[in-house]
Structure formats: C-alpha cells, structure tokens
Amino acid sequence: MLITVYHGVDVGTAKDKGAMHFDALPSRGEEVEIDRKAYVVGRVWHLPSALFAGAKLAVLINEAVDETVISRTHAMTNA
User: Fold this and answer.
1) What is the pTM (predicted TM-score) of this model?
2) Nearby residues of 62 by Cβ (< 8 Å), 6 or more positions away
3) Which residues lie closer than 8 Å to 37 by C-beta, 6 or more apart?
4) How far is the C-alpha of 61 from the C-alpha of 2, rounded, in Å?
5) Which of 45, 64, 60, 66 is nearest to 8 (CA)?
6) Domain locations in the chain?
7) pLDDT category, 60, cuts 50, 70, 90?
C-alpha cells in the first residue's frame, strides 16, 4: 500500500518524506521503522483527491522515544 509520509510534530510544519510502500496501514501510536530508524505514527488520514495517481493515505511520524529513557524515567518517578 502506497502511503505519503510526513515527518514532524504537526501537519503544518512536517516535512514530506515521500511516498513509501507499507504491507498494511499503520495506526496511530504504532511504531514503524524507516531507513533503520524507529518512528511513532502520530496521525493517519485520507488524501481524497481522485485526480492524480499515487498515495491516497498519509501518516505523520515522530521520533520514537528510546526505551532506556522511558525505563529510567519510570524508575525515577517510582523512587
């Protein structure tokens, strides 16, 4: 499935990383790997234009939080 990928915090400032092929549509909160780097899907939406060939879906991705940082933060809050 061809999906347009945007990288950033919000759609208005996100950079277009191009159209990429996915086996299935990723859902919000799902971790995806692109170019050997982990990202988290922040938003998924439909691109309704039927006038051009190409992706009809888009995702907004952000950097994935490192699990070691999460475990250290969790440990500090429970101390």
Assistant:
1) 0.74
2) 7, 8, 9, 39, 40, 42
3) 63
4) 15
5) 60
6) 2-78
7) very high
